[in-house]
Amino acid sequence: MNTHDLFQALGQQRIETPSWGYGNSGTRFKTFAAPGAARDVHEKIEDAAEVHRLTGIAPSVALHIPWDEVEDYAELRRFAESRGVSIGAINPNVFQDDPYKLGSIGNPVPNVRERAIAHLLDCVEIMRQTGSRDLSLWFADGTNYAGQDDLRARKRRVREALQRVHDALPDGTRMLVEYKLFEPAFYATDLFDWGAAYAHCLAIGDKAQVLVDLGHHAQSVNIEQIVAFLLDEGRLGGFHFNARRYADDDLIVGTTNPFELFCIYAELVAAEQSSDNLTRTTARNVAYMIDQSHNIEPKVEAMVQSVLNCQEAYAKALLIDWERLAAAQQAGDVLEAYRTLTDAFRTDVRPLLAEWRRSEGLPEDPIVAHRTSGYQANVAGERGTAAAGGGFPVKS
Ligand code: PSV
Ligand code: MN
Ligand code: MN
């Protein structure tokens, strides 16, 4: 790919950041208070706008309801727009209320399921008011012990609820169904892997697609293969980018697994250029989102680094010599194919990205720009250090 096309592609990249990444959060053991951490949704949006100002490719922010609940969502939308960002995916929260102890849409008690579905439908309405395209669904549902509940009955309850929400979605919007290997349910999670999410989406309808959170797999799972499969089936809806070492610890994306991130982007770039209409359209509509709650890192800085790591992986994937790769694959030349990929992966794209930023009027090094801008000191002065919890906060 020549530099002109590459720069154009880089300019079209979009990474959404999550409101919950800007507030104080921690592990089960401790939430450390960060000076200047956002205290409400308006401050979270201000921080997301700062990430966009620095990187130029993070123009939307995902909301979590009710953490980000407001009286007037149209006003919130205008507020975001006045800061140069838009409202992205709406994430309903059906895991923090006491009635959800045994689950939400998989709960054996009909009233509890109805309460969860009502909240999901409220979130569809919030999508309308905020101009959001995606309802992003993650459920903490599952069981801790064999025999605790009927696994097939739970599957059916989940299907019924998802169907009702799907059918309420306005045209042009979608539901992204996220899966997770385990936690907080430790015996059986109702949406336990991509296959379960995919099967539900397939049965429910065209507005349902799978969301791949990089943190939600067993260690040896080949995520890029899942991505390729779902792209080819037209059912890849979005990503939650982060890095996982043990479970759902939501670390800065690409820090421990840069090659995996590159291979995922390679599948996306290949699909974006595919001659197959469904695959190409699916790839072009993928929602790229970060899902991280930083525990010990400065929050805005960590988010900027995550966005930059996505950009770096994407730039490297754009450099793949696809003709050389296809020829090697056809010839059965295993090593030449591997070397073609790794030639792109090993390219130092930092000078090129700095040049792209210069050409866009962005800071060459967004982290340095942030550190010298005074933004952090300002918000620390204005917002102070909010009281943070001991152990067991809302989100691990
Ligand atoms: C919990 O695992 C989780 O990290 C999921 O990945 C959700 O997407 C996120 O929380 C927000 O609810
Ligand atoms: Mn997630
Ligand atoms: Mn997670």
From TrEMBL:
Q: Which organism is it from?
A: Deinococcus aerius
**Pfam families named in the record:** AP_endonuc_2
Q: From what superkingdom does this record's organism come? A: Bacteria
Q: What protein does this entry describe? A: Sugar isomerase, L-rhamnose isomerase
List the top taxonomic levels of the source: Bacteria, Thermotogati, Deinococcota, Deinococci, Deinococcales
Entry keyword annotation includes Isomerase:
yes
Keyword list, A-Z: Isomerase, Manganese, Metal-binding
A biological process (GO) of this protein is:
L-lyxose metabolic process
User: Which ranges carry the Xylose isomerase-like TIM barrel domain?
Assistant: 71-247
